[in-house]
Amino acid sequence: MALYIGSHVSMSGGLIAAAKEAHSYGANTFMIYTGAPQNTLRKPISELKIEEGKLFMEENGLSNIVVHAPYIINLASFKSSIYNLAKSFLKTEIERTQALGAGYLVLHPGAYTEMDAEYGINRIIEALNEVLTKDMNLYLCLETMSGKGSEIGRNFSELAAIIKGVELKEKLGICFDTCHTHDSGYDIINDFEGVMDEFDSTIGFNYLKVFHINGSLNANGARKDRHANLGATPDNPKGKDMIGLDAIYNIIQHPICQDKPLILETPWLDAKTNLYKEEIALLRGGK
Questions:
Q1: Nearest to 106 by CA among 269, 276, 244, 265
Q2: How far apart are CA 92 and CA 101, in angstroms?
Q3: Integer distance in angstroms from the first to the last C-alpha of the chain?
Q4: What number is the average pLDDT over the span 174-186?
Q5: Do 135 and 175 form a contact (C-beta atoms < 8 A)?
Q6: CA 233 → CA 157, 221, 237, distances in Å?
């Protein structure tokens, strides 16, 4: 059993630059966006320096990498222009993820905006049944969400409903975000085992593929989605982590986290402080 710990890294210099950045943090995995998460501008696959990156990864023990889909993809939208863009761009991101050799593409399920949750869930199911293909060699991982606004995925039941309606269920996975699940009301601090039991009974452990390891600035159930650095204290410019290191250690040491990519998305405070390197070392060092 292995512990794969990494963070979000930049793809501005292609896969080789991303891999080198991750390696400099002491990581053995990492997460990337294939381009800016707020728009559809993308470099051609031929310019992503993929082969150089794969060779560096192989030589330096980096694997199980994750791609995060851009935020602009909203498969729950009732607006046809937004919905059609979401489907077509998700297809493009799947192609790029496979070209990069990543086995996981994390996706925010979507927001129903002016409709309701049932409408949004059905809309997502319809889109995934159109986008997913049998020859796709990655897991599309729906992310657990914090419950802010009208976003889908604020509880395990909503994610289970999506999976139930998708034909190619074997192509789906779940990305469990510690900040989001805490903010949505799950007690991962005092009862992570119970939360895992509920996940297994509602969705099933076979779908749990990726973890986002983040602190939270908010109290349990706040539904705000504001990440904090691990173990942050009140004198930290980003505020106090309301989850706490003890709970995070308990989570990453759980058997369910072994052999899965554990990705930090904690705030980057300034260019002089390499928090990803510090936090990865903190997680590996334990209490």
A1: 265
A2: 15
A3: 20
A4: 98
A5: no
A6: 34, 20, 9
Of 68, 56, 49, the C-alpha closest to 22 is 56
Based on the number of CB atoms within 10 Å of its own CB, is 200 exposed (0-12), middle (13-18) or buried (19 or more)? Answer: middle
Residue % of the chain over a pLDDT of 90:
86
The pLDDT of residue 272 is 47
Instruction: Please tell me the distance from the alpha carbon of residue 254 to that of residue 132, in angstroms, as a whole number.
Output: 31
Burial tier of 233 (Cβ tally within 10 Å: 0-12, 13-18, 19+): exposed
Give the mean model confidence (pLDDT) for residues 188-216. Answer: 98
Q: Is 179 exposed, middle or buried, given 0-12, 13-18 or 19+ CB atoms closer than 10 A? A: buried
C-alpha closest to that of 62 among 16, 93, 10, 12:
16
**DSSP labels, 218-253:** S-TT-----EE-TT--TTSTT---SS-HHHHHHHHT
| Pairwise CA distance, residues 131 & 152, whole Å | 18
DSSP-derived 3-state class of residue 16: helix
| pLDDT above 70 coverage of the chain, percent | 95
36-50, 69-83, 243-257: segment of lowest average pLDDT: 36-50
Residue 269: what pLDDT?
61
Instruction: Give the Å distances, CA to CA, from 180 to 18, 78, 185.
Output: 25, 24, 9
pTM of the entire predicted model: 0.95
Instruction: Work out the number of other CB atoms within 10 angstroms of the CB of residue 255.
Output: 8
Please, which pLDDT band fits residue 35 given cuts at 50, 70 and 90?
confident
Torsion of CA 154, 155, 157, 160, to 10 degrees: 70
